[in-house]
Amino acid sequence: MAPGNPKSMALILLFSIALLFSVTTAARKKTHSIKECVKLVFDPPPVAPTFWKRTLCRDLLRTNVKSFQITGDLSQEYLTALKKLPRFNNNPAGLNNFLCGLGPAKEAAMKLGC
């Protein structure tokens, strides 16, 4: 397909719409998605999930972490899901070390005692 070809442009547009639809659909169920993604990334199931699910989950969590690094505010859904993980359950020091390792904003780092 040559550049500027209407068929190739239509295919690119169709692919872009499909990708946008899948991302917005995943974002609609944000709370459920964050909990599910935290489990998927930090406590993977025995059966590997699909490539797209892993990719969308990593992007969703990466967005939350990037926001935390800039603003110092971590979404409550993400924090709650982290606290329920076996490695952080009843281990506030481990959770605190993990959060400090994310490189939070200065104000959040002071709150956490980093």
Automatic annotation (TrEMBL):
Superkingdom to which the source organism belongs: Eukaryota
Keywords: Signal
Signal sequence region: 1-26
Name assigned to this protein: Uncharacterized protein
Source organism (scientific name): Phtheirospermum japonicum
Native organism taxonomy: Eukaryota, Viridiplantae, Streptophyta, Embryophyta, Tracheophyta
